[in-house]
Amino acid sequence: MPRTPRVAIVGGGIGGLAAALALEQRGAETIVCEQSGALSEIGAGLNLTPNTVKALRSLGLNDAVEGIGYETDFLNIRNWKSGRFTSRQRRGDYRREFDAPNLSAHRADLIRILADALKSTDIRLGARCVAVQGNARNAVARFADGSEIEADIVVGADGIHSVVRKSLFGVDAPRFTGCICWRGMAEAAALPRDIPVADGALWMGPHGHVVHYPVRRGELINIVAHLDSDAWTEESWTQECDVSEPMQAYAEWSPMLTRLFPYSKHWYKWALYDREPLQAWNQGRATLLGDSAHAMLPYLGQGAAMAIEDGYVLAAMIARHGGDLDTALAGYERLRVPRSRAAVMGSRARAEENHLTSRWARLKRDLKFAWRDRFGADKTAFQVAWLYGYDVGKECG
After folding, report:
1. How far apart are CA 345 and CA 296, in angstroms?
2. 54-88 pLDDT, tens per residue?
3. Domain annotation for the chain: domains and CATH numbers
4. Which of 213, 250, 299, 388 is labelled catalytic?
């Protein structure tokens, strides 16, 4: 009978905690090493698409996720200038079409339910990893304080600036997308009734788009505004700015949208990056997960989804192959690389279509969305049934 595998996970974000939970549930000894002093998530809103909800359901978190999530009837795609509807995706039908809802949630709430579900995982805070070595029969993670952890497998779930990725595959710089973002959070109760926020919304215009949707059971409205610009290239999500910046950037856009901006007490800005997806994630007994392997743009709402799916598949492969961890890692890579790469490239394609500058190109796009609403077999505006229909629990057991 194979012994219990010991797995060390570098990174205590959504992907790292989901992987730890999936591994723990299959009997692995798990250690999560997080460089910050607390388990927390920078940022605010998060779309939990149906495949994300199904992955969390497979981890036994369905009730908890439904408890933190907010389900809207529609995603309203609107014209940047007039505010008219370009498309109305009936998200209320997703439970029937995809066997799961589309929920919006606060990132911190998702971190909390993942952390609360862990029973035996050893969580080590303030553990800043500086290097990882993948060997033939084990892997070693080294930390800034001089300590080391030796494990059967080390998993890099440490984000877009992954130290583990750099250790295993060398330096490669993130790709600046030429887009900057602002984010804010407004209290729903403070908003005038004539500002439409009950449903999720996507406003698309020349060189930019804005999304907003309810979180925290509809108590808060998360706002994220994207604009083609190289005026700011810092990635930090914690750089605070004045509301005058998004107000000026979207001054020509519909007042139905821009009247929402001042109701956020704080605004933050960052530059948007992704990475070229890797074709190989494993080196010896070390591997990657989530953004460290496939950092992607947010335009298909799949960043957290892919990380959670990664963690589930990794645990399933280890359980399936028992003591043959090399075969398990090879199976993990084989199953996850194609799907995550397709999500990366699909998100890039959406970025271009969201920001069309030609009036005629936008009209053609909008007519396409309207046709899909009425006649399309895949009634999602962005043709993502292939993403939403996937159930990692059924695929991997």
Report:
1. 8
2. 999 999 999 999 999 999 999 999 999 999 999 99
3. 6-173+276-396 (3.50.50.60)
4. 213
